[in-house]
């Protein structure tokens, strides 16, 4: 059996997609593709081909990712990396990080520094997810 490999929200990685209903429907079952574990709440997986989104994002389970106490993991995952170079169209856009408030080029709600610091979504007083608990020591946070 292949090794269990952990990925964090914001990671790009290469994976062989499973025979899930969604992967069969979008014709990627058993295909080796670049995937991105999004920092959405709940996390979703964005598939990439030739530097562009392949389809709408899919659930972690449909993409063959599972979760345990240590985070999200899958089997046969290789080439874990940061965001690939931006494709020529659409151009990269500067966004404000929802966690720390820094402005950066990104496709996700939080910047790489916040992802690397372990910032995670937290619940509000009603129990709903929706704001970020900034763990960075080099900023005041948002």
Outline the structure in words.
Helix content is 8%, strand content 37%. It has 2 helices and 13 strands, in the order ββαβββββββββαββ. It has helices at residues 21-25, 112-117; strands at 4-7, 12-16, 32-37, 44-49, 52-53, 58-59, 66-68, 71-75, 78-81, 94-96, 103-105, 120-123, 129-133. The longest helix is centred in the C-terminal third of the chain and has 6 residues, at 112-117. It is globular and about 40 Å long. Residues 87-93 have low confidence and may be disordered.
State the helix count: 2
Please state the CA-atom Rg, rounded to the nearest Å.
Answer: 16 Å
Query: What amount of the residues lies in strands?
Result: 35-45%
Number of domains: 2
Basic shape: globular
Q: What structural class do helix, strand and pairing data support?
A: mainly beta
Residue windows where pLDDT falls under 50 for at least 5 positions: 87-93
Taking all residues together, what is the mean pLDDT?
77
Topology pattern, helix = H, strand = E = EEHEEEEEEEEEHEE
Distance between the termini: 43 Å
Beta-strand segment tally? 13
* Portion of residues within helices: under 10%
Largest sheet: 6 strands, antiparallel
Keywords:
mainly beta, 142 residues, globular, three-stranded antiparallel β-sheet, six-stranded antiparallel β-sheet, 2 domains, 8% helix
């Amino acid at each position: 059996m292949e090794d269990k490999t952990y990925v964090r929200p914001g990671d790009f990685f290469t994976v062989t997609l499973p025979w899930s209903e969604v992967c069969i429907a979008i014709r990627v079952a058993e295909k080796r593709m670049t995937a991105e574990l999004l920092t959405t709440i709940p996390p979703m997986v964005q598939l990439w081909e030739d530097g562009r989104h392949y389809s709408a994002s899919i659930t972690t389970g449909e993409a063959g990712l599972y979760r345990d106490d240590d985070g999200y993991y899958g089997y046969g995952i290789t080439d874990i990396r940061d965001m690939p170079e931006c494709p020529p169209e659409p151009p990269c856009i500067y966004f404000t990080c929802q966690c720390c408030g820094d402005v950066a080029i990104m496709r996700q709600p939080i910047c790489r520094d916040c992802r690397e610091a372990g910032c995670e979504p937290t619940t509000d007083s009603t129990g709903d997810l929706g704001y970020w608990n900034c763990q960075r020591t080099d900023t005041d946070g948002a």
